Every structure is written in structure tokens, then in C-alpha cells.
């Protein structure tokens, strides 16, 4: 079991995400006494009888004034069993782009629903986004369970509906858990609550401490080395007259001195001579580690190239199909000319065709759609000016993802996944 869990929260507005995160920080003793005192004073000023724990996490003034979360905020807390990095994402529909960003590296997502509202449109949208991103584990936190009559019946109904949804979205039953909670009062957060006798599972923190996860958040399958070159280091000093290193972060695989590699897209083969870091040389390096590779031969390598394992190097591609979540205010149509950022390479791209729009509310595919609007999910064909070195997203999350960017303003317009990731979803066809 990994001693670090990367998780994210998602849910609709007013489902209680900030209160839940504040409760997690409070119950794990991850906040300082003066922070608690400040929150208590602010709560009293608002006329509240108990501390409003959401104030621990809604740091932006705009968020505090409106009582909503509008940005992704990363929180860190720990228990004796495990450490946690949590991305607290917004609930408003217009901030779905932030949810995509926050959940893109998550090993588990806590999806909140208000027990009084049940599974709503935004719940289904967020669940679909998590499925497309390939988030391995999902927790449905049915919040505000203390505010409904027949809590047991309400919880069972919500669980049944959510199970049908997640099954159709491709999750195995054992990868989805449901917990009734009251973030305000702390029911089933740190410990089991006597107020939910119908529930016999673990508390939320107990579940987070024990859930098995893959430590490699970059991919679900083992692939060879993928090393996008970020920077070419050539000091040209008297001490290092011939030094030539290639700096970047390992996206997949393991690298060791002596490994045979290929530089893509040129296809030049060589071997790794050594692995440099600021702390000295390494005998091996794992995914997520930032290093400088020294190659045995003086080969032509530039920023944007990829150094890959010679045994399973991917073929450079200039045309491919992809699934995208459209984040732009103006609709996406076939023929759009954009920039595509993949790893450390940015190149011009053209959207060749809109193949289908995915209706996440009814799990149906609209093959007649002519555009994608804000927050729409769809499958498109893409042609790029310079080949990219990509794996299918289902094979490796890091090398299978990309961004589409507005060439005029530089704004991110879409999060893209190489390949047809919708194949895991039970998709019908819109009539």
C-alpha cells in the first residue's frame, strides 16, 4: 500500500465540499490553533453557534463572500497510516475545467451529493469526467444525511442510482464506495457515527487510510521509459567544457545507466551513460522524478523530443482520434486551427472532424453533432504540424493527455485524451 494518496473532491454547489475538507483537516489535526481561533471568531461574527470549518479552505475573499469555491486549492494532511494531497475543486458548471485539472492526477475522488437532492445533473457530469480521466477509485459521500427523514431509505436509493451510473461508466463495483456523512457535525468522517445505524462500513478517513491504490499515478499499465525533454543543458564552462545533458521529468517507466534508448521523433538510438541530479548521480529513476540524462553518444536532441525505451518506443503520430472536454466559451467546430501542447512540445493543430458528442446525462452518443459547447465531451480527429510521441490514454495517463490552446490569447480550450476512452462506457445512440 502506498503511504501517499492523491485525492480530489468534486460535487455540485452547496453540497458541502469546503466543509468536508475543513472537517478532514480539523479531525486529522492538520490545522494550527490560531487558525481555529480565527475561524471561530469569524463564525461568531456571522451569528453561528459552531465554527464554520469551510472557512479553513475557502481562502479567496470572493469565495468567502459568496460561500463557494471557485479555484482548485491543494491541501495536505496526514494520519499515522498515510499522507494525503487533496485537490479541492469547484462545483459550478462554468468551473468544470478546474475539476478536470484537479482530478487529472488523482488516485481517488470523493464525489459529494446533498442527501436532500440526490444524484443531479452535475453529479452525473462529474462522474463522467472522472471515468474519462481514468480515476481508479471513487467515493460517494452522501452529505447532510442528518437533514432528511428516513435517512436509511434515502441513502439506499441514492446508492442504487449511483451504482447504475458508475457501472455504465465502466467502474468495477469494488472500486466504488458509498458513505453517509454529515460534514458539519462530523458523522462518519473520522469515526463511525451512532446516528447512522443502517451503515456498517468504515468512516471516510478509515477508508482513505486503507484503500489500496497504485502508487504510479502516471499510468495504469507498465510501459517503458518516456522522458519528454524539457531543457538541453550545455554550460560551456572551463569546468564542464563538453557537458551535454537533457533535463526533464520521467513520465513513465524506469531508467538506468546502460539502458538502450531511442530519441523521438528522429529515431536515433543510443544508451544512457548516467543520471544526474542536484544531489548527485542516481542508479535508477522512477516516474515523477526530475533528472538530467547524459547519453553515450553526441546525438541531436531538442526540447520537445522524447527519449524512450528502445524496446517499446511508440511511433510518432501526426493524425489521431481523441476524446476532449471542451472548456472554451465559443463552440468547437471542425476545421478549427489551434495549438496543441503535449508534454514539452507545442505544435499547430487542426480539428479534422467532430466524430461524436457524448451526452453524459443519458450516456448516449450524438453522431450528428456539429459542435461542442462549454463543458461538452466529444470525440474528434486531430492533425498536428509536428509529430507527437503519445501513448493511448488508457495505457498511460501522462503521455496520453494533451491540451488544446487558443493561439491568439493563450487560453486553454480543451483537455484531450488520445484514443477512444469512451469504449469503457455503455454508450447508446441518440435518436
Instruction: Indicate the overall shape.
Output: globular
> Would you state the CATH class of the largest domain?
Alpha Beta
- Distance between the ends: 46 Å
Low-confidence stretches: 60-70
At the fourth level of CATH, the homologous superfamily of the largest domain is P-loop containing nucleotide triphosphate hydrolases
Fraction of residues in helix: 10-25%
Question: Mean of the pLDDT scores?
Answer: 87
Rg is 24 Å
Largest sheet: 6 strands, mixed
The total beta strand count reads: 21
Order of helices and strands: EHHHEEHEHEHEHEEEEEEEEEEEEEEE
Beta content comes to: 25-35%
CATH topology of the largest domain: Rossmann fold
How are the strands ordered across the major sheet?
2-3-1-4-5-6
Judging by the overall fold, what is the CATH architecture of the largest domain?
3-Layer(aba) Sandwich
Structural class: alpha+beta
- Number of domain units: 3
Plain-language structure description:
The protein is α+β, with helices and mostly antiparallel strands and 431 residues long. The protein folds into three domains: 4-210, P-loop containing nucleotide triphosphate hydrolases (Rossmann fold, 3-Layer(aba) Sandwich); 226-309, Translation factors (Elongation Factor Tu (Ef-tu), domain 3), CATH 2.40.30.10; 317-429, Elongation Factor Tu (Ef-tu), domain 3 (Beta Barrel), CATH 2.40.30. Helix content is 18%, strand content 32%. It contains seven helices and 21 strands. It has helices at residues 17-27, 33-45, 61-66, 96-103, 121-133, 151-168, 204-210; strands spanning 4-11, 73-78, 83-88, 108-114, 137-143, 176-180, 226-233, 245-249, 260-264, 268-277, 280-282, 290-295, 306-309, 317-326, 337-342, 345-359, 364-366, 377-388, 401-405, 412-418, 428-429. The strands form three sheets. A six-stranded mixed beta sheet has the order 2-3-1-4-5-6, with helices on both faces. The protein has a six-stranded antiparallel β-barrel with strand order 7-8-12-10-9-13. It has a six-stranded antiparallel barrel with strand order 14-18-16-15-19-20. Strand 16 and strand 17 form a beta hairpin. 44% of the residues are buried. Residues 60-70 have low confidence and may be disordered.
Amino acid at each position: 500500500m502506498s503511504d501517499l494518496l492523491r485525492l480530489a473532491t468534486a460535487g455540485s454547489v452547496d453540497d458541502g465540499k469546503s466543509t468536508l475538507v475543513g472537517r478532514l483537516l480539523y479531525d486529522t489535526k492538520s490545522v494550527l490553533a490560531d487558525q481555529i481561533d480565527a475561524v471561530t471568531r469569524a463564525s461568531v461574527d456571522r451569528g453561528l453557534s459552531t465554527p464554520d470549518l469551510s472557512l479553513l479552505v475557502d481562502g479567496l475573499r470572493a469565495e468567502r463572500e459568496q460561500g463557494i469555491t471557485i479555484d482548485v486549492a491543494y491541501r495536505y494532511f496526514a494520519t499515522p497510516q498515510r499522507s494525503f494531497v487533496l485537490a479541492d475543486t469547484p462545483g459550478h458548471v462554468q468551473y468544470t475545467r478546474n475539476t478536470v485539472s484537479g482530478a487529472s492526477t488523482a488516485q481517488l475522488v470523493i464525489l459529494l451529493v446533498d442527501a436532500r437532492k440526490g444524484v443531479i445533473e452535475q453529479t452525473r457530469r462529474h462522474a463522467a469526467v472522472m471515468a474519462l480521466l481514468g480515476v481508479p477509485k471513487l467515493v460517494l459521500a452522501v452529505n447532510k444525511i442528518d437533514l432528511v427523514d428516513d435517512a436509511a431509505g434515502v441513502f439506499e436509493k441514492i446508492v442504487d442510482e449511483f451504482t447504475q451510473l458508475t457501472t455504465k461508466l465502466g467502474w468495477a463495483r469494488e472500486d466504488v464506495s458509498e458513505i453517509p456523512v454529515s460534514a458539519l457535525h462530523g458523522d462518519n468522517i473520522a469515526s463511525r457515527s451512532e446516528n447512522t445505524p443502517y451503515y456498517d462500513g468504515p468512516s471516510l478517513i478509515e477508508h482513505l487510510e486503507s484503500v489500496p491504490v497504485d502508487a504510479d499515478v502516471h499510468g495504469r499499465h507498465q510501459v517503458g521509459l518516456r522522458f519528454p525533454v524539457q531543457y538541453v543543458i550545455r554550460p560551456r564552462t572551463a569546468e564542464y567544457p563538453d557537458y551535454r545533458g537533457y533535463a526533464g521529468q520521467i513520465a513513465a517507466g524506469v531508467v538506468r545507466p546502460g539502458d538502450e534508448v531511442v530519441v523521438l521523433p528522429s529515431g536515433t538510438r543510443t544508451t544512457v551513460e548516467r543520471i544526474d541530479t542536484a544531489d548527485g548521480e542516481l542508479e535508477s529513476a522512477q516516474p515523477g522524478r526530475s533528472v538530467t540524462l547524459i547519453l553515450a553518444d553526441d546525438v541531436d536532441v531538442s526540447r520537445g523530443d522524447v527519449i524512450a525505451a528502445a524496446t517499446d518506443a511508440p511511433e510518432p503520430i501526426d493524425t489521431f482520434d481523441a476524446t476532449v472536454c471542451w472548456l472554451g466559451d465559443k463552440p468547437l467546430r471542425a476545421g478549427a486551427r489551434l495549438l496543441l501542447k503535449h508534454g514539452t512540445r507545442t505544435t499547430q493543430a487542426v480539428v479534422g472532424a467532430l466524430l461524436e458528442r457524448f451526452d453524459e446525462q443519458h450516456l448516449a452518443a450524438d453522431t450528428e453533432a456539429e459542435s461542442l459547447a462549454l463543458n461538452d465531451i466529444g470525440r474528434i480527429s486531430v492533425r498536428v504540424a509536428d509529430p507527437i510521441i503519445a501513448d493511448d490514454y488508457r495505457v498511460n495517463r501522462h503521455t496520453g493527455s494533451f491540451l488544446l490552446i487558443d493561439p491568439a490569447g493563450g487560453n486553454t480550450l480543451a483537455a484531450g485524451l488520445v484514443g477512444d476512452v469512451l469504449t469503457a462506457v455503455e454508450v447508446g445512440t441518440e435518436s
